[in-house]
Amino acid sequence: MPPPLRSLSAKLLLLTVAFVMMAEVLIFAPSVARFRETYLTQRLASAHLAILALEGAPDQMVGADLEAELLKHVGAYLVALEDPKVGRRLLLSIDMPPAIDEVVDLGRMGFFDKLGAAFVTLLGPGDRILRVLGTSPEDGVSKVEIVLNEAPLRREMINFGYRVLALSLAISLFTAALIYLSLHLLLVRPLRRMTENMMAFREDPENAERFMPLSGRSDEVGLAEAQLREMQEALWASLHQKARLAAVGVAVTKISHDLRNILSTASLMSDRLAASQDPDVKRSAGTLMTTLDRAINLCRQTLNFTREGPAVLELSRVDLHALIDEVGSELPASLAGEAEWRNEVPAGVGVEADRAQLYRVFHNLGLNALQAGATAIVLDAARLDERLEIELTDNGPGLSPRARERLFQPFTASGRSGGTGLGLAIARELARAHGGDLELRRSDAAGTCFRLTLPLSQASRQAAQ
C-alpha cells in the first residue's frame, strides 16, 4: 500500500480543500466589493441623519463642538447635501484636508468598477482622501457628498477579509471531510479491497477461494468487481485446462513416438501387400497405405509441435516471388498437375525474414488449401507503409462455421477429416515471431482468403514499437 500522504485518500482530501478554497476566492472578490459599497452607503446615510439633526436646530446653526461630534459620528471631514428644491448647500465641515485623492460616485460605478476599487483599497497605502457622492438611502432623492479618510474603510475591509478567510477554511475543511468520507467509503475502500484481492490472486491463481467477493453494488464499482471476478474465473479455468492439456501432451508425445514406429512397420508390410497379384488384396492395400500414411503424418506433426519452442529466426533478405515459386513447385498436388499455383507477387519484392520459417508458412497454407479441395491458389502482395500484405486466395469449398470459431487453435480447428489443425497454428505462430500476423479475411462458397502481414525489415518493426 502507498504511504498515507501519497494515498488516493490524501490526494482527494487535498484536492477538495483546494477546490473549495478556489470557489471561496471567487466569492471573496464580489463580497469585499459589496462590503466596501455598503460601508460607503452607510456613511452617506449617517451624513444625511447628521444634516437632519442640523436642520432641526434653531436657525440651522450648531456650535463647533456639536458640529465636530456630528462629523465624528459620520467619520468625515465634510458633509454636503444637495436638495432638488433649493440647490446645493454646504452644511458641515471641519479641518478639511489639503487635497482630494479620488472621487467616488457610487451611482455611476459598474460591477467591475466596484471590484477594481475594492482591491485598490485593500492593496493601496490606505491613507487616501476620498470624496464620495451618492443618493441618500434615507429618502432615495437627496444627493449626499462626504469627504473622508480611506484608512478606517481599509481596516474594516481587512477585518472582513480575515473573517471570510476563517469562514472559508472552516467550510473547506468541513466540506472536504464530508467528501473525503463519502469517497473513501464509496470508492477508495472498494478499490483497496480489489487491489488486495488481485495481489492475493496473483500469488495463487489456481486457488478458487481467492476469487473477488461481490458486494452486490449496482454501480460502476459493482460492475468492476463482477468483471474482475469473471476474469479470475476465466483465468482459473484456463490454467486448469492448460494443466490438463500439459499432462495429456506428455502422454500423447510418448504414445505418438511408439505408435509412429509401429505404423512405420505396418507401412512396410502394406508395401509388400501392394505387390500381391490378388486384385482384392491390391485394392485393399491402396486404402490401407493411405490410412497408414495419414496416421504416420499425424504422429509426426504432433511430435514436432510438442518438441518445438519459440521460433528462433535466422534473418536474411528473402526474395518473396522466388520463395513462393519454390513452395508451389514442391506442393504434391501442384507437382502432379492437379491444381494451379499462381504467383502474382511482383518480381523483386523482398522482406527481411527467416527463409526456412517463411517457407513453412506458405507451405502450410498451400497444403491446407489443396487438402481442403482447392484446385486454384492465387498469391499476390501489396506494400502498406513499412509493411507487406500477402493474400492467399483459393477456390475451395470454404471453412465451416465451427472451423472458423477456433481456426488457429492446435488440434481443434482442422477444416477437413483427419486433419490435426496444426498447420494454421504453426503458420500464425511463425508470422507473429516475425512481427506480423496471419488472419482469415473471408471464407465462403467461392473460396477462402488468408492475409499474411509482415514488416519489410526488422528495423522498421522495432521503430514502430
From TrEMBL:
Major localisation: membrane
Keywords from the UniProt entry: ATP-binding, Cell membrane, Kinase, Membrane, Nucleotide-binding, Phosphoprotein, Transferase, Transmembrane, Transmembrane helix
Bilayer topology: Multi-pass membrane protein
One Pfam family recorded for the sequence: HATPase_c
Domain Histidine kinase: 254-458
Catalytic activity: ATP + protein L-histidine = ADP + protein N-phospho-L-histidine
InterPro entries in alphabetical order: 2C_sensor_his_kinase, HATPase_C_sf, HATPase_dom, His_kinase_dom, HisK_dim/P_dom, HisK_dim/P_sf, Sig_transdc_His_kin-like_C
Enzyme Commission code(s) on record: 2.7.13.3
GO cellular component: plasma membrane
Compartments, record wording: Cell membrane
Any one GO molecular function term: phosphorelay sensor kinase activity
Enzyme category, top tier: transferase
Parts of the chain that traverse the membrane: 12-33, 164-187
Protein name in the entry: histidine kinase
Source organism: Tistlia consotensis USBA 355
